[in-house]
């Protein structure tokens, strides 16, 4: 019997612990009020979407571009190409949290660069996210738009922006596949991230001089695509060309796997552009739809041109058309209408096709540079094209939802006039349109302003003491009958 008591007591203790645990878990900590885990500023919907968008963009690189690169090159370069992408993804993350996030999105050091510092401590990561230099001012110094403060923690923002930095680096790698020294690549990744990517990101997104000039780059047409395309072209020049045999014949080693990587890239772009407004809002929905419309249109146009000029559709060509459509829509995804996304898809499926398939073969300069995957055409040309088209097609209402500068709009919206007067003018009438009215009657509001139009009928001589002066009107003359 004495031997049985300890087990009995142990059983009772376990039962009591389970009872207490059950009582405590009836209201999980994440749903209790006034806890540090759920501060007042946290919007769980926005936070959930932003982390989902981050995961989608991350999947574009790892495994999307890892698979794409491994399969689109010759078999002998499959492992090396995949490793270049894999290494870049890991190296960028560590550099990002140690220094580069705050160089791109921190307090201003120069008009094109932020103050580098670690983004690792909980005091920094657990507080509400803020982009401190995104405050925008009027010319007289008054605040036009306050600093962007999303409704989720800084940790979410740090990771979301990392995924953009990583994919930019990996896109650049596509220009030098098949011959770059892997050790040189390992050194190049952190150096380019620090001295190039952070400059573009801060200048346009982090509150730098291009941001304050009102340059529109919704989700990376310049920061990512133009940047990676130009940098890749430059790197390809300095690294030198592939072997002659590789340049002459460089077929993909696995077309089906290449399509799988391309599919991850396409689907992940919904997070790429859908996460750019930093919230689960209307522009995010518009951006996701426009992204897919542009990609599909561009793919179809590129494939059609292949059939017309070469007699057969190309799977590689279709993938390239998809990528140009995605790159082109990126700078304007959330600020253009969906019909404009079709226009951008048509142009991104044809102009980069022309530069790659026709112009490249005739240009001595382009022939000298061995851009393995044509990143210059698929990203630099397409990204620049998208930026220019955004400047033409950005819709005013959508711009007001996203951009810090009020009254932003594409140039086309400056050329076309609406047929109908705006509602405020319809309510007021002639005074709103012309600044004057035909005649004044009692009770019809403010009519004639002698300060603006001069005095008539002795209006200049009327004073508050005159019996015809109307105290209820801010301006004008009312005659009592």
Automatic annotation (TrEMBL):
It comes from Lactuca virosa. The chain crosses the membrane at residues 48-70, 82-104, 158-177, 189-210, 222-240, 252-272, 278-302, 314-333, 339-359. Residues 48-397 form the Ammonium transporter AmtB-like domain. Its main location: membrane. It is found in: Cell membrane. InterPro entries: Ammonium/urea_transptr (IPR029020), Ammonium_transpt (IPR001905), Ammonium_transpt_CS (IPR018047), NH4_transpt_AmtB-like_dom (IPR024041), RhesusRHD (IPR002229). Keywords: Ammonia transport, Membrane, Transmembrane, Transmembrane helix, Transport. The keyword Transmembrane applies. Belongs to the ammonia transporter channel (TC 1.A.11.2) family. SUPFAM superfamilies: Ammonium transporter. This is Ammonium transporter AmtB-like domain-containing protein. It is a multi-pass membrane protein. One of its GO terms (cellular component) is plasma membrane.
């Amino acid at each position: 019997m004495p031997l049985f008591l300890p087990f009995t007591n142990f059983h009772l203790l376990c039962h009591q612990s389970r009872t207490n645990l059950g009582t405590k878990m009836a209201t999980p900590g994440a749903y209790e009020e006034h806890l540090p885990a759920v501060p007042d500023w946290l919007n769980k919907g926005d936070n959930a979407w932003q982390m989902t968008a981050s995961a989608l963009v991350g999947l574009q690189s790892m495994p999307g571009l890892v698979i794409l690169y491994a399969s689109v090159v010759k078999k002998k370069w499959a492992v090396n190409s995949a490793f270049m992408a894999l290494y870049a993804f890991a190296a960028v993350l560590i550099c990002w949290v140690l220094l580069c996030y705050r160089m791109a999105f921190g307090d201003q050091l120069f008009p094109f660069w932020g103050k580098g510092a670690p983004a690792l401590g909980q005091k920094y990561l657990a507080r509400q996210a803020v982009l401190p230099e995104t405050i925008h001012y009027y010319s007289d110094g008054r605040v036009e738009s306050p600093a962007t403060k999303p409704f989720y923690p800084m940790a979410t923002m740090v990771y979301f922006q990392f995924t953009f930095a990583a994919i930019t680096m990996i896109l650049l790698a596509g220009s030098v596949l098949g011959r770059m020294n892997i050790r040189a690549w390992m050194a190049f990744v952190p150096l380019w991230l620090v001295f190039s990517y952070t400059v573009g990101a801060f200048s346009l997104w982090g509150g730098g001089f291009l941001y304050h000039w009102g340059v529109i780059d919704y989700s990376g047409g310049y920061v990512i695509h133009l940047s990676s395309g130009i940098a890749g072209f430059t790197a390809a020049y300095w690294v030198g060309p592939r072997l002659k045999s590789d340049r002459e014949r460089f077929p993909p080693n696995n077309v089906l796997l290449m399509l799988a990587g391309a599919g991850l890239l396409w689907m992940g772009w919904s997070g790429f552009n859908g996460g750019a407004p930093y919230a689960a809002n209307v522009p995010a929905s518009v951006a996701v739809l426009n992204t897919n419309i542009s990609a599909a249109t561009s793919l179809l146009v590129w494939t059609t041109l292949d059939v017309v000029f070469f007699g057969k559709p190309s799977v590689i060509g279709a993938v390239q058309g998809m990528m140009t459509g995605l790159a082109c829509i990126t700078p304007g995804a959330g600020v253009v209408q969906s019909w404009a996304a079709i226009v951008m898809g048509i142009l991104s499926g044809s102009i980069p096709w022309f530069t790659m398939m026709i112009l490249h073969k005739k240009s001595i300069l382009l022939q000298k540079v061995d851009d393995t995957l044509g990143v210059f055409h698929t990203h630099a040309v397409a990204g620049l094209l998208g930026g220019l088209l955004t400047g033409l097609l950005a819709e005013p209402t959508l711009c007001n939802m996203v951009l810090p500068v009020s009254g932003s709009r594409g140039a086309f919206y400056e050329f076309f006039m609406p047929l109908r007067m705006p509602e405020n003018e319809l309510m007021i009438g002639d005074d709103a349109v012309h600044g004057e009215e035909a005649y004044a009657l009692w009770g019809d509001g403010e009519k004639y302003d002698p300060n603006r139009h001069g005095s008539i009928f002795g209006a200049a001589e009327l004073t508050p003491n005159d019996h015809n002066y109307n105290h209820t009107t801010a301006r004008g003359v009312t005659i009592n009958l």
